[in-house]
Design a protein that fits this description.
The structure is a single chain. The protein is mainly α. It contains 3 helices and no strands. It has one domain (3-91). Helix 2 (33-57) runs antiparallel to helix 3 (61-91). The termini are far apart.
């Protein structure tokens, strides 16, 4: 396949993923956001592994840069998810 076709295919998949993700997130009631954040930590962990592989293989400078950015953003998502989950669990503890 020629590089232009691969680029257009990649951009198309990315744009569809952004649209579907936005539509799904906006349809979720606010009461479910915190529990879903906990579940997304596992998915972000898988994303980190894939991003590390992408950044580590260093096939092209672009894949290295995008892989590094993906590691950074997925790590932020995991840390944020754990902080939100911890805060949510604190709400259910008995007060002394």
């Amino acid at each position: 396949m020629d590089p232009a076709t691969i680029l257009v295919s990649g951009i198309t998949v990315f744009m569809l993923a952004v649209f579907v993700g936005f539509e799904i997130i906006t349809k979720i009631p606010p009461t479910l956001h915190t529990p879903l954040m906990s579940g997304s930590n596992a998915i972000s962990g898988i994303t980190i592994v894939g991003a590390l592989i992408s950044a580590g293989t260093q096939q092209t400078p672009l894949t290295t840069i995008l892989g590094t950015l993906a590691v950074m953003f997925a790590t932020l998502n995991v840390v944020g998810g754990f902080l939100v989950t911890h805060r949510m669990l604190e709400m259910f503890k008995k007060k002394d």
